Amino acid sequence: MEDKQQEIKNAVLRLLARREYCRQELEQKYARKYASNDVEQVLDEMEEAGYLSDERFVEVFVRNKISQCYGLMRISFDLKQKKIPEHLLHKALDELEPDWFELAREAWGRRFREPPAGDYKVFGKQMRYLLQRGFSMDEARAAIDYNGENDE
Fold it and tell me: What is the DSSP track for 66-82?
């Protein structure tokens, strides 16, 4: 029993040395290979020791997604998939205070060079791109309009 737990602990530490993981990701990763109570016990110990922290994971995850120009809806959806409590997302966002409209403009600028200029097909394509990245309709429309006005 102790050998299995030490094996799990070593495997988890190797993963955490590379990047942050949330508890649910690690539970899922080792659920097939080890007994769930062994995995739970090891992860509890790792949390108590400070090696594993969902709060720290959320901070790193949100900062990374913002730097990749993803919107709030996409970030929120991805964290819900990982079963992260919403209050941790709000705490991270309060610290970072991102400007979603500016991020939408930046995402538009990374992907597109020309504004739609009255072409509804091009406008639709640009709008879908921004919406799929998690921006609201208002943020996407403002990004396209802003770039359409200032690039002429």
Answer: HHTT--HHHHHHHHHHT
Distance CA 52, CA 44 (A): 9
Query: What is the H or E stretch that residue 111 is in?
Result: helix 100-111
User: Tokens 């941790």 map to which residue?
Assistant: 88
The token pair at 107 is 């995402």
Give per-residue burial for 37-58: e unless 16+ CB within 10 Å, then b: ebbeebbeebeeeeebbbeebb
Q: How far apart are CA 101 and CA 94, in angstroms?
A: 16
Instruction: Place 152 in a pLDDT band, splitting at 50, 70 and 90.
Output: very low
pLDDT digits (tens, 9 = 90+) for 112-139: 988 888 889 999 999 999 999 999 999 9
Tell me the C-alpha distance between 139 and 103, whole Å. Answer: 9
d(CA 107, CA 101): 10
Q: Kindly report the number of other CB atoms within 10 A of residue 11's CB atom.
A: 16
Report the pLDDT value the prediction gives residue 148, as an integer from 0 to 100: 62
